[in-house]
Amino acid sequence: MKYKAIFLDIDDTLLDYVPCCRAAFDASAGVLDEFEHRGRKIEGDELFQLFFDIAGRLFSEAKHGKYTIAEVMDLYPKEFCATAGYPPEAVEPFTHAFRQAWGETHALVPETKETLEALRDRGYRLFAASNSFGHLQRSRLQHAGILSFFEDTYISMDIGYDKPDIRFFEEALRRCGLQPSEVLMVGDSMTTDILGARAAGMDTCFFDRREGRGDILHLSELITKYNL
Ligand SMILES: [Mg+2]
Hints:
Blueprint: E1 5-8, H1 17-28, H2 44-63, H3 69-84, H4 91-102, H5 112-121, E2 125-130, H6 134-143, E3 152-155, H7 156-159, H8 166-176, E4 183-187, H9 190-199, E5 203-206, H10 221-225
Parallel strand pairs: 1-2, 1-4, 2-3, 4-5
Magnesium ion binds near residues 9, 13, 188 and 189.
């Protein structure tokens, strides 16, 4: 076998980010009704879109080094509440409710379970490699029924560095005792997953299931395309 282990990003690689985000938002937005609102009241899809766009922009800026993931986790609920017309006191309860709901979101990307099973059956060591809170990502993998496939989970807030920082990958490799050449990194972000892992000396698989610009379009192609 060319590789001993596969590192897999979580969001939009194993778990479907948009439906997860919508489910957590729908479960937590009711908290905002307890607070006095100013200006035009935005609701429903429009309110979710506002939240999604603000979070998306800030996470994208984090990818390019403007913020850490930890900073963005605090910033986006603040900016969302302010923009939607809710007072500063709403931020903490909304953030708490959203994170709690987020930890239970578990929409799977198609072919995830089959692909993890196939990789496990072929003897690969599997590790999750994600930018987020460790306990929430593990909870989501557990709810999705796929946590047991992973020997360990490398999550940025546990590791101390965010992808694409080379130190994230170096620390993950140190923890599993492998050389960069022994690991294939699979992820949907060219910036954080692919360029980061390449800089650390790892081979990569760019999984772009939306636009087809990647190495694979469906997760199961990982097995055939890379002779795993
Ligand atoms: Mg991702």
